[in-house]
Amino acid sequence: MPLENVEKIFKYSYDKKGNQLFKFSNNKNKLFFKFTQESNQKLYAPIWTTTPWSLPCNKAIAFNPSMKYGLISSNDSQVYIIQADLINHVIDKVPFFQNSRVIDAQFDGRLFSGSFYASPFTDSSSTLLPLLPSDHVGSKQGTGLVHIAPSLGQDDFKLALKHNLATNCVIDEVGRYTSDDVVLNTFGLNGKLALDTDTFERIKEILGESIVGQHDHIHSYPYDWRTKKPCIIRSSMQWFIDTSSLKEKALDSLKDVKIRPNNVSNSMTTTLSSRPYWCISRQRSWGLPIPCLYDIDDKDKKYPIIDKNLIKKVKDLIVQEGNIDFWWSKKHDGKLFESIQTNLCKSADIFDIWFDSGSSFNSVLGEQKTADLYCEGIDQFSGWFQASILLSVALNKTTPYKSLLVHGFVVDEQNRKMSKSVGNVVEPLQAVKGSANKLPQAGLDALRFWIAHEHHKPQIQIGAQIMEKFIKRTFEIRSVLRFLVGNLHDFKSTDLIAYDSMWPIDKCILAKLGSISDQVYQNYEDMNLSKSINLVENFLLSQISSFYIKSTKDRLYCAKNDSLERRSAQTAIYCLLIKLLVMIGPVMPHLAEEAFHYSVLSCNDKESSLFRSDFGFKCDQVWQNDQIQELFDLIEFLRSLFHEQIQSDNPAMYEIFLDCDPSSFKRLENIKKKIGSYNWLTECFGSSDVNVNLEKNASNEKADSSINLKVKKVNKFACSRCRRFICDQNGEICARCQQVLNI
Q1: Which residues contact 666 (CB under 8 A, 6 or more apart)?
Q2: Considering the domain 243-407 in this protein, what is its CATH number?
Q3: Which N-terminal residues, if any, form the signal peptide (predicted)?
Q4: In sequence order, what DSSP letters do the residues of 287-320 get, joined into one string?
Q5: Do 453 and 539 meet the contact criterion of CB atoms below 8 Å apart?
Q6: What value, to the nearest 5°, has the Cα angle with vertex 499 and ends 493 and 505?
Q7: pLDDT digit string (tens) for 437-455?
Q8: Of 40, 121, 510, 742, which alpha carbon lies 20 to 30 A from 593's?
């Protein structure tokens, strides 16, 4: 900060060559140290670090311009700058400061702008380094002043680029300090391993009395997963794509892409907008090599040699050899280097795997280069999805996909991520075939049912109890389909009857099916698999199983085989089965195909398939019968009143009396004339009988209802065949059953 500002506000002098205080640690150890040049200088900028080996590479100190800073006067009469909220923390942690005096004054961090400091790790005592503003400086630990080594940290590197600091790395690929740095040579650090204990001791020796404190500090640090040893993050020569020239075009193209589910659609735009650059090279012992050459004397690999003829030779050799392995040997070097120049070596860099996968559209999508759908996890907004659109816009000026389907991540029942060390990783085959002490045998359809139901959630739980629920639900769906298939055993497509001749409840169930078919289809189109399968499941269990099957069992089991009333129910079941199999097919293909082959739909053709049939989602327009739906809305209301009155008794033991106004009476009478009886009402209620009467002053149990319901327990006996309570003597067979049996 400018000298006059400090003197004016705090009355403490600040020499731009003044002493500095640093703190650093090795793994669990913290060390505070100060840089000093002249004994009469009194203002220090203390920092701390968990990477002491990076201090010889220090090029700046970062401060946060939006934070407040304060001052501590130590026992040796020196003054130290500390972030205001961290002063007490520093005093508690560092014995050197425990008897220090806190000066009652604070100032804004922005006043550091334009200031410089002297570091012991410079080649000259006159060399000054800058204090730079940065938002990455926090107030949770340390001193609020951060040591910056541009080549050894991501935040450091970004700050260096912003302020034009040198970013060359003085630690090589082996982890040794290089010999081409003046500072390292001055202090005898060149050639030493940065993470070696001897190196740490040498750095402490150089700092000497500048170290003012040390304490344990447990923190996160990158370790190599194979060797279990600490890693060094270092800058290196890499290949980059300038995304700034592509982002606007990519964002504009993204407007035409449908992203599902809708609640994550903004994530792609946000992630793409904030991407600073793309490093497309990696240093691995496997992968797709970057086809370029270097002069052997170009040790830093600053001047790559790229030649069209070289790339053509590489392509020809890939075709000839069947792979790229020749690049890693000298087998074809003569041919590759031919007519370029001598003293060459091949690049050891490979392409980033996101460059590989991101350019897959160029190889697998033919001339159009655009897929209908890309499907992956939500993390691919910054991975495959983003890499693909950037490369496609660069090459083809368009997106490589028309839509994106994004899913969450699978976790266990305790919401823990899958981890081999924890032992909770679930392989798909384990869920299909079952796994001892882990998962029950679910089968493929139950697993697909679980995926379709849960895929849109950020965290998708899986475990024994969860899969048991989906196995049970799959079995319930299968049971309903089995009933439908079984009751078509004597039915052929030639037995279908006209819609006008069908019983009201059969028309009703087709109308209800028609009301969900468009929703199911549209949700499949929108990739809302959970909504589609939930609609179908609810319809199967609540409408078909709980209502329709219970109501029509008597007709299906006890009516004459070829009677109109039974064929009406079978016609409805035939239509239901076709549409339901088409609806569950995308999620439960094996169950749908099994039901298809066991039903009359396959026509006993073993080569036929539901998925090669011409069955569609769309229902017959005539099924959309508003009058029938309105009638059954009223009947369902009356059914609920009926069951409220009889409680848990057997409804077949009761007789129902409906007192209707003239309009309702006429409507029900017209249906009776067409069918021949009120048996259709009897099966709707599951009662012994239903009597419909005309009553001018019928009271309304429901505001818009014009029918009054009364119930009476019948004094009859159950038919020995159909079990309806309509016989006068015990053990008798009712008149309907006698007619069916020709008795």
Answers
A1: none
A2: 3.40.50.620
A3: none
A4: S-B---EEETT-TT--S-B--HHHHHHHHHHHHH
A5: no
A6: 105
A7: 788 999 999 999 999 999 8
A8: 510
Q: Tell me: the pLDDT tens digits for 317-351?
A: 999 999 999 999 888 888 888 767 668 889 999 99
Banded model confidence at residue 284, pLDDT cuts 50, 70, 90: confident
Between CA 5 and CA 111 the distance in angstroms is: 8
Q: Residues 60-69: pLDDT tens digits?
A: 999 999 999 9
Residue in the structure block whose two tokens are 């009356």: 638
What is the DSSP secondary structure assignment for residue 97, as one 8-state letter?
G
Distance CA 380, CA 268 (A): 9
Q: What token pair was written down for 480? A: 């309903």
Task: Tell me the per-residue pLDDT of 288-327, one tens digit each, with 9 for 90 and over.
Answer: 999 999 988 887 788 898 888 888 999 999 999 999 999 9
Tokens 């996968």 belong to which residue? 357
| β partners of residue 377 | 407
C-alpha distances (whole Å) from 172 to each of 41, 168, 181, 183, 233 are 37, 11, 12, 15, 11
3-state secondary structure of 24: strand
Per CATH, the architecture of 3-216 is what?
Alpha-Beta Complex (3.90)
Helix or strand (DSSP H, E) at 664? helix 662-675
Does residue 425 sit in helix, strand or coil? coil
Q: With a cut of 90, say whether residue 220 has pLDDT above it.
A: no
Read off the pLDDT of each residue in 632-641 and give the average, rounded to a whole number: 90
Q: State yes or no: pLDDT of 32 exceeds 50.
A: no
Per-residue pLDDT at 697:
63
pLDDT at 37 over 60: no
For residue 64, give every residue at least 6 positions away whose Cβ sits within 8 Å of its Cβ, in sequence order, or none.
83, 109, 133, 134, 135, 137, 138, 139, 144
Looking at residues 571-589, what average pLDDT do you find? 96
Backbone angles phi, psi at 477, to 5 degrees: -65, -45
Written as one letter, the residue type at 440 is P
Angle, CA 624 vertex, CA 678 and CA 633 arms, to 5°: 50
> What gap in Å lies between CA 191 and CA 520, rounded to an integer?
69
Among the four given CATH numbers 1.10.10.10, 3.40.50.360, 1.10.730.20, 1.20.1600.10, the one describing domain 490-623: 1.10.730.20
Find, among 312, 319, 320, 302, the residue nearest to 336 by Cα: 312
